């Protein structure tokens, strides 16, 4: 097997021509998302160029501080995105959510890199890409969990009121909502696990194969990362929902504050 | 003997101030007043599902704060105005609320008895979905009545009913409360019903 073919800049620019196809389809079907497509493409390009430059620098000058700073920025961005999509959570709920993301993310990353791969925890070549996959999936999962949870609480106000009236504890009332939100958040990960290898070759595995890794090695990494993602999504969502839901009431009065 | 007593210090978020109100044990009392006078809020304050200042609400002579709140809510049971019935049959819904209270599920005969009390001639195995608004309200009322032990707070229990049915239901309700020794507080907009069934009338925010 040989390593990946280096892309020349003019070869690389050819891929942008495909966007013209997308634009034509959008024009024909009158999909009014041209602006978003252009903005998204530019943002993606700029952000990835920056990431490439920064990673090049970090790989050439490996230092634990750089690795920690990079992971910190990723985590901070994840938390920011999750909370900005769920603005009406009370401040304590927001803190719980941020802590759950940090604890679940760090635990999974350390276990993966330190115990499973057996690599130095500050080796940027492993920690940063794996950390990125973990945080990216955490962001999607927790956003979805909180959105489902909040919307279900809003939709079912009469159910909640009736249960409060018959003297059901706030904890018992909230538990089915937590369960439902957790299920919803886990579903995409579980579905992608089911289809994996048949419907698609996943991104990380594809990347490794392109770079010349043996398929049997790359599937081991892929399986490991999928289990890690499943774990981190479950733990971060559970932490946010279970401990976050406790900020919605005080145990003595048992009055739910839903907004 | 008075069972519920709220002092003049009782107010809700400084918007609504309530007068000194006492309700006798076993009475069938009505709460009336114009819309927005705070009748529903008053009932919620009474069962502790919205917070009141400490020392404003007394039940059996003890302030609300002295009670374990979940037990208190079961004794001073509020039947909210917004009906919630889970998907399934009427009996499923009895089970739903009994399970929510961690109580043993009722016998079918008991459930049927409470449906009849609310003037409903439907089998308990009927699904709740096709029921009309008035029927749903009465199924909801029947379930809550079967859970009532001491005080029952009714927030417009006859809102979705025609006048004849409302009379019948309230008549049955009052008889049942007397027979069981229940104290009732009922929010109601119909002066006729109030006149016919009230032992005591509490007017909030001036006459309606």
Describe this protein's structure.
The complex is a heterodimer of chains A (259) and B (208). By secondary structure, chain A is mostly helical. Chain A has two domains: 1-61, no CATH class; 63-248, no CATH class. Chain A is built from ten helices and no strands. In chain A, helix 6 crosses helix 10 (215-245). Chain A starts with 8 loop residues before the first helix and ends in a 14-residue tail after the last helix. In chain A, 26% of the residues are buried. The model of chain B has no long low-confidence stretch (mean pLDDT 91). In chain B, helix 3 (90-100) runs parallel beside helix 5 (133-147) and helix 4 packs across helix 5 (133-147). Chain B has helices at 39-46, 69-75, 90-100, 108-117, 133-147, 163-180, 191-197; strands at 2-6, 11-12, 16-17, 21-24, 28-32, 57-59, 62-63, 76-79, 151-155, 183-187, 200-203. Chain B is globular, with a radius of gyration of 17 Å. Chain B has one domain (2-203): P-loop containing nucleotide triphosphate hydrolases (Rossmann fold). Chain B is α/β, with parallel strands linked by helices. Classes of the chains: A mainly alpha (259), B alpha/beta (208). The A-B interface holds A 156-159, 161-169, 172, 252-255 and B 47-51, 69-74, 77-80, 82-84, 86, 97, 100-101, 140, 144, 147.
Please supply descriptive tags for the structure shown above:
heterodimer; A: 259 residues; mainly alpha; 2 domains; B: 208 residues; alpha/beta; Rossmann fold; four-stranded antiparallel β-sheet; 11 strands; globular
């Amino acid at each position: 097997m040989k390593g990946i073919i280096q892309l020349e800049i003019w070869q690389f620019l050819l891929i942008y021509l495909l966007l013209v196809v997308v634009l034509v389809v959008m024009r024909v079907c009158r999909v009014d998302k041209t602006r978003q497509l252009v903005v998204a493409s530019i943002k993606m390009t700029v952000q990835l160029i920056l990431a490439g430059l920064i990673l090049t620098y970090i790989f050439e000058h490996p230092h634990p501080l750089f690795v920690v700073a990079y992971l910190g920025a990723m985590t901070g961005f994840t938390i920011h995105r999750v909370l900005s999509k769920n603005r009406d959570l009370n401040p304590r709920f927001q803190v719980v959510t941020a802590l759950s993301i940090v604890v679940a993310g760090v635990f999974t990353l350390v276990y993966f890199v330190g115990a499973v791969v057996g690599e130095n925890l500050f080796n940027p070549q492993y920690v940063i890409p794996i950390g990125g996959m973990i945080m990216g999936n955490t962001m999607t999962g927790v956003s979805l969990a909180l959105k489902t949870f909040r919307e279900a609480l809003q939709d079912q106000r009469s159910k909640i009121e009736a249960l409060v009236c018959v003297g059901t504890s706030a904890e018992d009332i909230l538990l089915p909502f937590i369960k439902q939100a957790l299920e919803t958040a886990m579903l995409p990960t579980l579905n992608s696990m089911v289809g994996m290898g048949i419907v698609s070759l996943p991104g990380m595995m594809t990347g490794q194969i392109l770079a010349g890794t043996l398929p049997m090695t790359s599937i081991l990494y892929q399986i490991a990362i999928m289990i890690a993602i499943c774990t981190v999504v479950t733990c971060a969502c559970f932490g946010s929902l279970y401990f976050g839901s406790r900020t919605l009431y005080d145990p003595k009065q048992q009055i739910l504050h839903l907004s | 003997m008075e069972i519920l007593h709220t002092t003049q210090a009782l107010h809700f978020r400084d918007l609504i101030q309530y007068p000194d109100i006492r309700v006798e044990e076993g009475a069938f009392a009505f709460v009336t007043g114009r819309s927005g006078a705070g009748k529903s809020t008053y009932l919620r304050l009474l069962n502790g599902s919205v917070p009141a200042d400490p020392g404003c609400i007394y039940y059996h002579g003890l302030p609300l704060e002295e009670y374990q709140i979940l037990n208190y809510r079961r004794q001073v049971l509020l039947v909210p105005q917004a009906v919630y019935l889970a998907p399934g049959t009427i009996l499923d819904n009895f089970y739903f609320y009994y399970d929510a209270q961690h109580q043993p599920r009722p016998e079918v005969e008991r459930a049927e008895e409470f449906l009849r009390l609310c003037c409903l001639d439907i089998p308990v195995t009927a699904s709740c979905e096709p029921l009309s608004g008035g029927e749903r309200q009465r199924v909801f009322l029947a379930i809550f009545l079967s859970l009532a032990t001491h005080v029952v707070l009714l927030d417009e229990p006859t809102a979705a009913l025609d006048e004849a049915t409302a009379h019948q239901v309230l008549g049955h309700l009052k008889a049942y409360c007397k027979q069981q020794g229940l104290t009732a507080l009922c929010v109601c907009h119909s002066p006729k019903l109030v006149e016919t069934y009230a032992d005591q009338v509490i007017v909030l925010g001036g006459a309606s």
